[in-house]
Amino acid sequence: MAASTADRYGPSIILSPFLQGPASLPARFSCAPSLFVKSKAQKKELERQRAKVLQAQREKRLALSLKQKPDPILGYSTSLPEDHLKWENSELRRLILKNDEVWSGKVDEKTIGGSDENLLNFCLTEEQRELLFEALPAVTSQKSALEATTFEEVEHRRQEKVDEEVEVKKRALSRILSLRNANAKGIEKLNKLRILKAFSPPPKPGEPQKLDPGCSEVQAALTTYKIHSALEHAWENSHDFVSRRYLTSLVNLRMKILKYLRRTQPTRYHELLQRIGLDHRYLQEEIVVRSKLPPRPGKVLG
C-alpha cells in the first residue's frame, strides 16, 4: 500500500492565525496619524464654530460693560438697580437743599448733614442774627426818642410802646429771616455757600478756614450742582432745547475740571468722585453726551 501523504511528506504543520498572512487577520482599530487628517470643509466648519463662540463672548462682555458704564450726565449707571445710591448718599447731595423741602418746612432752621449752623435766609449766620435782635430794641428806642418833644414823653413812650414794638418787630424779623420764606434764588445762593464751605481746603490747625472758590474740588462740586439743577429743569420742560445745550456745556466743563485734577492730584481726584456722587469709572472712557435725557434716580433702563 502506498504510503500516506503524511508518511510521504512528513508531519503537517498547522500555522497559527497570527502567523498567517494579513488577509486572514480581522479588522482592528488603528491610531495612525493619517486617520486624524481633516478635510478642508471640516477645518472651515471648526474655524466657523470657534469664531462664533468668541463673538458671543465678546458681545456678552460688551453688553455687561455698557450696562455698567456711567451715564455722562448723572455720573452713575442707569441700568443697575441701586447705582443711583452713589449720588443719593454722597456728601454733595446732603448739602443741597431742594426748594419744595424748604418751602414745606422740612429743613427750615434745622441741622443738615451734621452741620451745627442754622439755615437762615439771605445766607445770614447765627451771630449776625443775634446781632440784629440785640440792636433792634436800641434802634426802636432811639427812633421813639427822636420823635418825642419832651423828656416826659420819651419816658412815657419807652414804658408803654417800646417793648410792644420790639416784640412785633422781632416776630416780623424772624419771619423775614426764616429760610421758608426765601425764594429760589435765595435757596440757590445758600446751596452754593454751603458747597463752598464744605469743599474748600481744610484749615490749618489754629487758623480759620479760608474759602477758595477757585479750588478744583469746589469748581467740580458747584458744576455738578448746576448739572443736577439744569437736569431737573430739563425733565420738567422736555421741549426746552436751550437748557439741554446748557446742560451739555456744563458736563463738558466738569469733565475738563476732573481731567485736570486727575492729572495733577490723582489722590484728591479719586476722593472727590465719591464725594460728588460719581462712579470711579466715570473718565475711563470717552464721554459723549447724547440728546436723550437719562431717567430720574431710581428708574432703571431696560
From TrEMBL:
Keywords, sorted A to Z: Ribonucleoprotein, Ribosomal protein
Highest taxon, organism lineage: Eukaryota
Record's protein name: Ribosomal protein S15
Example of a GO biological process term: translation
SUPFAM superfamilies recorded: S15/NS1 RNA-binding domain (SSF47060)
Family affiliation: Belongs to the universal ribosomal protein uS15 family.
GO molecular function terms attached to this record: structural constituent of ribosome
Keyword Ribonucleoprotein on entry: yes
GO cellular component, one term: cytoplasm
